[in-house]
Specification:
single chain, alpha+beta, Bacterial Protein-export protein SecB, 4-stranded antiparallel sheet, 2 helices, 4 strands
Length: 159
């Protein structure tokens, strides 16, 4: 029996075992000159998440946020944070596992990734980047729609 298959009479169990910053990087390729230039750079934000089972009833979920700031053709900075978590999942029906790992877990991790990016950019000498909240449910539905080959739902969230 798999760790995620429900047992007769067993209640589904879900818990956070560990939250951690798996990877973080920052590049300021045009320093120090970039600090002398005026203007507000354009921000490009990419968010992706992935999940993998690595042991009996244990899953690692990673939300990676990449922020690229550009002023014209110049890159002002590139900041990336991969916020991860280890989640224990037992007795969850297979049909509910994918949404749990694709919606529930990233929703838990994203605020930590937002904080890591803001802190990293501030430590680099730039104003903080305040990332907007996103709906991982909408992102999940968009990915499922794409995988099914259908039209993408209309939404303003990042993927």
């Amino acid at each position: 029996m798999s760790a995620t298959e429900p047992q007769a009479g067993a209640e589904p169990l879900f818990s956070i075992e560990k939250l951690y910053l798996k990877d973080m990087s920052l590049e300021v390729p045009n320093a120090p000159q970039v600090f002398l230039e005026a203007g507000n750079p354009q921000l490009e934000v990419q968010i992706r998440n992935e999940a993998a089972q690595f042991a009996e009833a244990l899953f690692e979920v990673v939300v990676t946020v990449t922020v690229t700031a550009r002023a014209g053709e110049k890159t002002v900075f590139l900041a990336e944070a991969a916020q991860a978590g280890i989640f224990s999942v037992r007795g969850v029906p297979p049909a509910d596992l994918d949404p749990l790992l694709g919606i529930g877990c990233p929703t838990i991790l994203y605020p930590y990734a937002r904080e890591a990016i803001s802190d990293l950019v501030t430590r680099a000498g730039f104003p903080p980047v305040v990332l907007q909240p996103i709906s991982f449910e909408q992102v999940y539905l968009q990915h499922r729609q794409r995988a099914a080959g259908g039209p993408e739902p209309q939404a303003g969230t990042a993927s």
